[in-house]
Amino acid sequence: MTTFQSLGISSPIMKSLEKMGFEEATPIQEQTIPLGLEGKDVIGQAQTGTGKTAAFGIPMIEKIDQSQKKIQGLVVAPTRELAIQVSEELHRLAKFKSVRTLPIYGGQQMDRQIRGLKDGPHIVVATPGRLLDHIRRKTINIKNVHTAVLDEADEMLNMGFIDDIRDILKAIPEDRQTLLFSATMPKEIRNIAATLMKSPAEVRVKTKEMTVSNIDQFFVEVNERQKFDTLTNLLDIHSPELAIIFGRTKKRVDEVTEGLQARGFSSEGIHGDLTQGKRMSVLNKFKNGRIEILVATDVAARGLDISGVTHVYNFDVPQDPESYVHRIGRTGRAGKGGQAISFITPREIPHLHLIEKVTKSKMKRMQVPSSDEARRGQQQLTMDKLNQTIENENTQDYRETAAELLEQHDSVTVVAAALKLMTKERRQAPVTLTSVQPVSVKGGKDKGKRNNYRGDNKRHFSRKGKPSGGNRKFQNKRGSNKSNNNNKG
Ligand SMILES: Nc1ncnc2c1ncn2[C@@H]1O[C@H](COP(=O)(O)OP(=O)(O)OP(=O)(O)O)[C@@H](O)[C@H]1O
Ligand SMILES: [Mg+2]
């Protein structure tokens, strides 16, 4: 066990850590905080939910001179929601040091951001597009930045933002410290990343698997047309506290959300076509438990830290193994348990094996649930409530009526009627979704897929809006990047 104290952390930050309930440093924190404090460049890789934010946040905050009203730390993150979240975590960590952090992202009014920037934050957490906007308009001064962090670095580089990131880093003095963090870092991306840094130390928290062991991983083999009924049956059986369902496209997310609502589930969708205000309000409702199910594109796959997510469903299997790692990593965070269930159509079985191979983890087969099991699942919830009432509540006032009922009917009939009354029966609304193409590893038109994953740099790194070559998978990827730009502004 490594205490934060032994890492040489100052007392204001120690105080924050105590308030946040952090008792000991996680392995990535233990290994990177000293390097960060020494001013070394670091490529840090550790599993999802293991505290990478504080791993770069603590040394960054330690090095801020709060008497200087200048931006000294800069974090770049791929999505708006993540920029906000990281900014909040840094704010909590810096609570007793009066270090001010400001998130800057697309979809928010420019003049408001400019006012915020004029107020003199010490740390800015930004999405790449909006940050470049400010740099080009000269509405941000990052000449005094001494620490720059790329959170989810592989994703930003993979999205074709390498030139944008270079432009951003060019605007910062060269003697800066640069830190790169992610749960995944394919070799070719790491090589590119290293070109942005000065002889970086590579810290990889060694584990056999890329995924955390506290997530139980399953797959269900289903036909495309069975997916939706299977999903609602599973939701009835699992009755998750909070669940995230990942769909491949925005349209898919909309359709699944509508279908779930039609069947009486409390759910909303999030993707890049929604206004920033809507995205925030959906996410906040989910965080507060006012909706139980969040249906999302990959915009919610990276970095989001929402406590209480017990289940992740890959309604559509993700395109590449990295994406799988990040999606399922929305559960099982900070040592908690979780379940991940991936829907695989028969033609996608080879893709399942590829994911298992790359992530070095195994998904257990889960049988397709029957509607009978789903019904039992719903009734189980009622039974639990009933048992709780029997154990914890005084039911004295109801006994006379109960006895009266039992004179009229046999006991099973009475209890069955009470169960029926209490059980929230699903509306059996018919739901038909527009089919999506299966993902495949090899053969025919999807052939480029694997090559792309394996790391044809040209495909990974060409700039947005400049598709290179006729690779179909690549164009799909670009297609989704167009939406990513919306998403990730
Ligand atoms: N030392 C610690 N002790 C207890 N909780 C911690 C500690 N460090 C971080 N946490 C908490 O663990 C959760 C996950 O942390 P964080 O979001 O930084 O993970 P991550 O490694 O960045 O994951 P991802 O790869 O998904 O981005 C957060 O709620 C954070 O506050
Ligand atoms: Mg993170």
Report on the structure:
Helix 6 packs across helix 8. With 489 residues, the protein is an alpha/beta fold. It contains 20 helices and 14 strands. The protein has helices spanning 11-20, 27-38, 52-62, 80-93, 110-118, 128-137, 153-158, 162-170, 187-194, 227-238, 250-262, 276-287, 321-328, 349-359, 371-392, 399-408, 411-422, 448-454, 457-461, 472-488; strands at 42-45, 73-76, 101-104, 123-126, 147-151, 177-182, 201-204, 215-221, 242-246, 267-270, 293-296, 309-314, 338-344, 364-365. The longest helix is centred in the C-terminal third of the chain and has 22 residues, at 371-392. Adenosine-5'-triphosphate (ATP) binds next to helix 3.
Rounded radius of gyration (Å): 25 Å
The CATH level-2 architecture of the largest domain is identified as 3-Layer(aba) Sandwich
What are the segments in which pLDDT stays under 50 over at least 5 consecutive residues?
Answer: 443-488
Report on the biggest sheet: 7 strands, parallel
Find the structural class using helix and strand composition: alpha/beta
Q: Give the CA-based shape.
A: globular
User: Cofactors and ligands present?
Assistant: adenosine-5'-triphosphate, magnesium ion
In total, how many beta strands? 14
